[in-house]
Amino acid sequence: MPADPKAQKTYSEGVGWLKGHNKGAAIDSFKKADKQDGNHCVACQKEMIRLGMEIGDFKVADQAAQEMIAEAKDPQAVALAHDERGSVLIREAATKNKDEIYAEADKEYKAALAAYANFPEAVYGDALVLARMNQDEAAKAEFLAFVSMTKEDSAMRQRAQLYADRPEMARARMAPAFSVTTIDGQRISLDDLQGKVVLMDFWATWCGPCREALPHIRQIAQKFQGQPLVILSVSLDKDEEKWKDFVAKNNMTWLQYRDGGFEGPLSRLFSVNAIPHTFTIDADGVLQDEHIGDASIEGKLKKLCARARELEEAAPKMAAKGGQ
Question: pLDDT (tens digit, 9 = 90+) per residue, 83-95?
Answer without folding.
Answer: 999 999 999 998 8
